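Pilot study result, target chain (389 residues):
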Amino acid sequence: MNSTQLASILLRNSTNRYYIVYQGYLVNHLSHGIVALSRLGANCERIERFIEWYTPRLEQPEKFRDEENMKNITELLGKRQSFYGLVNAYKGELDKRDGSLEKLIADKFPSLFPGLLGAALHGLIHLGYGYAAKSAQVVCEGLAYMHYSYLPIKLSTAGGSRFTEEEIGRGPYNVLDAVAMVRDNVKLRDFMKMKAHSEEFLNMNIGDFSRKAMSLFTFRGDDILDFSLSVQIPSTDQIEQLDVEFQCRALLRWLLETAVAVYALADIHDFFLLHGVTAAWSLLQVAPVAVGHSKQLTQDLVKTFLCALLTTYIAQDCPPLSIERLKLLSYKEDAWTTVIEAALADDKDEHIYKLVQVCHELANDTDDQNVKKLCLIAGIRAISETFVF
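Predicted structure:
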């Protein structure tokens, strides 16, 4: 499939035709699935089959087209209102930049990424897949949905200072040890469960995961920040020697590899840990354009995403991770042919296409044998195991 065909299919099946959510809070993943299938080598016929299978669950946009022409979008940040008005506003901003997606993302993403955890990272994921396909429509939808669902971490005065001043990656623990510390903090998980099921949160029209994530980001932000700052990023000193843009890409790449490791090594096939993988890949698509020129913005973005990833892990009740899973298979390049063929053969949950696509691309783009194995473990898990929500 060429880029013109892909652009046409995305435009024809955009949120102009199907609303961004359905059944109250479930997110429309149609464009993500189309892009992932295209990147896996699916032809137009296969993608149209997916569209026909997926769209009956979606909702028509007419009843949601409120306040399309409102002017002030600042007051709508995180209010989950006027999605179409926000899309139109970002289209207007794109027009002011002569249609440059890069300029639009560079100007708007830095003010939106602090709230990227909102709606289980779906605004970021939508934006990343839209930019990977160079679709103006989907990019504007992604920015609008990040704006719509914005959920920032709330910190005390001291926590806010530490967030700005302390560099990420210089903590004493590797990721697996830091995750073990998180898992041992039973009081934090108990607080999350209690708060998420309080009347304050149960009255919100959002899913259980979002309630838990919101309870942590809103009331225990300092604890989440502490965990993120305890993590040691390998080769931090070497990364520091790179220019700012390469530092950004190296840190984002580490985030993606970390998200894959957590998903692949968990003792269950966790639905929301998978979102950490596709969100990290999406970040790698857009963030170099938006923050690659700034060390401070890069640091803030990496801290924010690591806080979101740790929050996702806690919200899913901290499934144990086992390094032993790395020993279960040897890496063979041709195994990907079987994985991709199995993914494309039948109509499946679109998250499977995305996970296989991301991990196949990462495996092909690294010389690290452990990362290659983790990617293959993740791909095999996606096509063969049942999700745990």
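One observation from the pilot: The first strand starts at residue 21 and ends at 22. A full batch analysis is planned for the follow-on phase.
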